[in-house]
Amino acid sequence: MSEYITTKEGRNLQLPSDEEDAAINAGIAADPDTYELTNEEFTQSRPIGRPKSDHTKMLLSVRYSPEVVNFFKATGKGWQTRMNAVLQDYVASHR
Questions:
Q1: At what angle do helices 66-73 and 79-93 cross, to 10 degrees?
Q2: What is the pTM of this model?
Q3: CA-to-CA distance for 16 and 24, rounded, in angstroms?
């Protein structure tokens, strides 16, 4: 019978059977370019991804005219950050 665990995000994940786990471990052992981390190595590892920001942003859905979106998108990568900066300047000048 398959065993499941639930992540903190609420997703249900199926754990491998004993046979599947043995095959996975055999594959790790057979690969000269990798090895299974020890518990000590695993606890010393750093989390991957972007560090948490001190200034979190609010996620919301907004509708803008195509001209506005196309203008900022045409400025390339980081267009949302530039759009946010323009809005922040507006807020600062209208206080």
A1: 120
A2: 0.47
A3: 9
